[in-house]
Amino acid sequence: MTESDWLALKVTLELSSVTTLVLLVLGTPLAWWLARSRSRLAVVAESIVALPLVLPPTVLGFYMLVLLGPKGPVGGTLEAMGLHHLAFTFPGLVVASTFYSLPFMAQPLKDAFNAVGNRMIEAAATLRAGPWDRFFTVGLPMARRGFLTAITLTFAHTVGEFGVVLMVGGNIPDQTRVLSIAIYDHAEAMEYASAHILAGGLLATSFLMLVTVYALNRRYMTVHL
Amino acid sequence: MSIEARFKLDFSGCFKLDVDLTMPDRGLTALFGHSGSGKTTLLRCLAGLERAPDGYLAVGGEVWQDGPLFVPTHKRPLGYVFQEASLFPHLSVRRNLEYGLKRVSAVVRKVSLDQAIALLGIGHLLERMPERLSGGERQRVAIARALALSPSILLMDEPLAALDLARKQEILPYLDRLHDELEIPVIYVTHSPDEVARLADHIVVMEAGRALANGPLVETLARLDLPFNLGEDAGVVLDGVLAQRDEIWHLARVDFPGGSLWVREHGVPLGHHVRVRILARDVSLALAHVDHTSIQNLLPGTVEAIGEDSHPALALVRVRVGESALVARLTRRSVAALGFSPGRPVWAQVKSVALIG
């Protein structure tokens, strides 16, 4: 592996870790609300959350670029405040990845919170637990399997990002150049051996992560049901 | 002091709750009705799990709901037992019991955890996880968990309905003890006439979201004018005292206000308060005392009223026996042939009496 490959690996891991953390913080309350809300707003919100699953990454990437760029509402505001816009930067990548990977965090968490069931939450309420108390002492611990799934899927999915990263991040070494783009570059330059190393590595790692998650899920299931 | 509840609730036109009730805040009040009669919805409104707009609820002088005022469930001093086990699967039995307890301030603790554990007989289960309990054990833990809160009212939503007969028999004695040993008023939702007869002091009969009857159990069961009919389960209960034992024939005499009855001996100590249930189909009437009969229990009384039965061939006849009343289920033909009418002295022959607690 070349030095730029190592840098790409570093950026990839940083991006995936930061994105997963951000999504854990934002996605958990969102999923809790989606699972428990009876309002029509939740239907709309759920559809928006699922959009990245069906949209071409370039569509999302394009709008992100417009939004975060120097003339966009977000980037422009930052510029006006004397800050730098976010297009072709690492923070910009994190923002874009957060939206792109949102369904992979929110959906499994929502399913897990749904599985906790209304009765358990109501039971906690009759035992004097207020809303926050119920969330932390019943919702979270009972949904812990869902967290494992959500974290792994989000991380793995962010590692595998390509289109959005290419649109928003460009291809700047040590800043926005991630593994999937490095592979693309190698393949285009006919450096198949280098491409093989990275592609094979990603394939094996992703597979191992999924095997771990599914095996753990299965084990918990046999213990708990 | 009492429980006052006024609720109106519409579920998109398909179902309604419309009640205005005053219930006693002592003893066990059964909310009785078929499934879909609104009894569970009423209980959920009492708990604050369901919010009926413009509802009113006061329990023992404390207002829990009135117009915009709505005390959320977790701030109401109640205990709630769900139909299905609702133990937290990630906590051991002990930590399930402690969950509510540690959220209650020490000042209001009247029932200790040890007392709740002893009352429900679950001392040997404390370290187990809920998944390793039987259905009956789970429900006992759930009841103990609610009791450990020292609630000022205990709400129970068909706590036995999900259990088989053997498990029901396992739990019923604990419910009797709860009733006898603690002074916590209980609102108990059920569709089982047996559970009503055994446990209730007071009954609210629900149908289509309305309360058809609301009164003390003994009096209410003896009413013939109710728009509900228990069919084969029609009958009365009498509260009495175990007064005498016949060791030779394994019988015991129960004295109730207005008379006494011989029942099969069940090892209840003398002087204990007991309840007997007499089904209307087990009572027949005669105009004179019958000497040569196998029936042990013959009670003199007066016909008080004659009412409809669900079957057109049958009639329900209420007989006053001292301060108590029995109900007999007779064919209309015999009512006519023997000329039973209000005021007529009769002998009630009671073929079978069940001692139910």
Question: Care to describe what's here?
Answer:
By secondary structure, chain A is mostly helical. Helix content of chain A is 81%, strand content 0%. Chain A contains 11 helices and no strands. Chain A starts with a helix and ends with a helix. Chain B is of the alpha+beta class and 357 residues long. Helix content of chain B is 21%, strand content 38%. In chain B, strands 7-8-9-3-10-11 form a 6-stranded mixed β-sheet, sandwiched between helices. A 5-stranded antiparallel β-sheet of chain B has the order 2-1-4-5-6, with helices on one face. In chain B, strands 14-13-12-15-21 form a 5-stranded antiparallel β-sheet. The radius of gyration of chain B is 22 Å and the shape is globular. The two termini of chain B are 27 Å apart. The model of chain B has no long low-confidence stretch (mean pLDDT 90). Chains A and B meet through helix 6 and helix 7 of A and strand 7 of B.
Keywords:
heterodimer, A: MetI-like fold, 11 helices, B: alpha+beta, 2 domains, six-stranded mixed beta sheet
